[in-house]
Amino acid sequence: MRELELKYGCNPNQKPARIFMRSGDLPITVLNGLPGYINLLDALSSWQLVSELKEAAGRPAAASFKHVSPAGAAIADAPLTEEDKKAFFVEGFSLSPLAEAYARARGADRVSSYGDWAALSEPCDEETARLLALEVSDGVIAPGYSDKALDILRRKRKGTYTVIQIDPDYRPEPVERKDIFGITFEQGRNDAKIDASLLTNIVTQNKDLPESAKRDLITALITLKYTQSNSVCYAVGGQAIGVGAGQQSRIHCTRLAGTKADNWHLRRHPKVLGLPFISDIPRPARDNAIDVYISDDAVELFAEGAWQEVFTERPAPLTAEEKKEWLSHVTGVSLGSDAFFPFGDNIERARRSGVSYIAQPGGSIRDDNVIETCDKYGMVMAFTGLRLFHH
Q: Which of 12, 246, 260, 347 would be a feasible disulfide site paired with 373, CB 3.0-4.6 Å?
């Protein structure tokens, strides 16, 4: 099949819409549902991300995409801890490595992942399909599906859940094009390989970069390669835990991603893990309640009677002092940036979220100031020499 007609483009008024190949057949097959224009943008971008993560790490990888940027991405690293399982809402599930990778990817920012597009580097197995069946999600792309997995997914959303199979051997042309305002843009495809060789130019006094940090920095950089710029990514344990995408200012990227990373850690606070939820509360409602509970706007949740919608009893608040104390113990986080840091304020903000390791292209006229700020806190920073803008 060389083309696929779509209901409409980005918006309902944008018709006609289709995807097509100039030569050869499409590398995808729709096994269920009817994908939209944005679905397919997410599907193709997220597939590239998980393919590169798998190649770099040698492990199954998964991503959760929303509006052409990842909300989360992860590899199947060490088995999930009991704390992880509780934070990711997968207690009591049988989890394959691929299922664990998706639980991690979805668990990076569960609020943003609401209605996500999922990407899997391996054929979808039953365990992963069962996780997908529980989440509010638009669709999934993978190189294959077991019979049981396909049966589970075809029953999701009253039979309308979109399931796409991609040919893992497909390789696009080296030059890519797109039309904007009637004008065709052309560029070489970004086929830059991201691996540990990018992390050898360590410019700080501290040059101790452990293998675990290399894994996390590579995870962050590959995630950034498919994130709308400007973008910054925090990573730990082989997964992205905070992605700041599409900001005009680098410091705003760092703050946004840092806040998301902080929330990821706060979801593991004993008070959060012990919240007395009503037994049949939907997963999205639980996600939203946790997000409010750990935010500075938690007072909203404790308005008269409001807590009764989600909790069996009124929980004790998580105070600002408790949050600060909990986050003060966070360390060993890695941070990637798709372009250079222009000022040391980005490093100051990253330090507040436990960042110990940084990878960025370098090349700012204030590199000396940025390096000096890293040295002040004993951080390790590598200049990759590779910018990763994505638009």
A: 347
CATH code, domain carrying 143: 3.40.140.20
**Is 322 domain-assigned?**
no
Catalytic residue among 32, 39, 225, 230: 230
Q: Domain end: 171, 188, 204, which one? A: 171
pLDDT band at 301 (very low <50, low <70, confident <90, very high): low
Residue with tokens 């050869």: 24
389 lies in a domain?
A: no
Convert the pLDDT of each residue in 177-200 to its tens digit: 999 999 999 999 999 999 999 999
Question: What digits encode the pLDDT tens for the residues 30-81?
Answer: 999 999 999 999 999 999 999 999 999 999 999 999 999 999 999 998 889 9
Q: Report the C-alpha gap between 327 and 355 in whole angstroms.
A: 11
Q: What are the pLDDT digits (tens) for 219-250?
A: 999 999 999 999 999 999 999 999 999 999 99
Amino acid found at 316: A
Mark which of 111, 140, 171 sits at the end of a domain. 171
Angle in degrees, CA 365, 368, 372, rounded to 5: 150
For residue 335 the two structure tokens come to: 């941070």
Catalytic residue, chosen from 67, 86, 148, 252, is 67
Active site residue 230: yes
Whether 260 sits among the annotated catalytic residues: the reply is no
Distance CA 164, CA 194 (A): 26
Structure tokens at 155: 């029953």
Known active-site residue 269 = no
Among 32, 39, 54, 66, the one annotated catalytic: 66
66 is catalytic: yes
Residues 279 and 358 in one domain: no
